[in-house]
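Dear colleague,

Thank you for sharing your sequence with our group. We've completed the structure prediction you requested, and as agreed, I am returning the results in plain text so they can be pasted directly into your records. Please verify that the sequence below matches your submission; if there's any discrepancy, let me know and we will rerun it promptly.
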Amino acid sequence: MDTRRWEQLGAAGGIVFVVLQGVAQGFIQTGGSEPAFSAAAPEIVDFFTTRDRRLFGLGDYFSTLSLIPFVWFLGALWARLRRSESEPAWLSLVALASGLVTAAQLVTGGGWTLAMARLDEGLDPETARLLFDQGNLGFANIWVSLASMLLATGVVSIRTQALPPWLGWTALVIALGLVIARAFWVGSSIVFAPYAIFWFWLIAASIVMIRHAGADQPTG
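Please find the predicted structure tokens below.
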């Protein structure tokens, strides 16, 4: 395949990431939705013990596997921003680095997986709470690195039309929402809203990048 086809393949990684994450969460949540961040320890134990272990393991696998297309998407995004940004082109590097930090956080935030792996040995309430909180805090911290990626992407897109300006402005709004959500991560479930909207942004950005892969001209 030529360079344009490879870049299209990388851009499609954003869509594949969303699909795999959606499937993963569907499997993980089988048996009832997760309790609130501030749930009591007995409720957390019930959450883990009511999971279908095979489906949970499959969901965990798909979630980890989704990192491959996400990293490929980051490579295509960096290429798109880098071609449009003037030297020293540091914002495109910030977008790439922030995305890679997000990928690393997804790999290392497996508190829930550790809890499920120890069910046969008995899971006491305090350990369950610790692992539950570890997973949730890691997930909340991902919002900050994603906000950095979206902020850099949004600024470059607005200045250069590397992506359509509406995608740039939307990225800035989502970034602000993610930063605010991190401050209230133990509050209402509405804090998930900016991350959910990010999935739609990622699909839209992937489609635009597939259509304009390899092109040097603005997409606006």
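Summary note from our side: The chain has nine helices and no strands.

Kind regards,
the structure core
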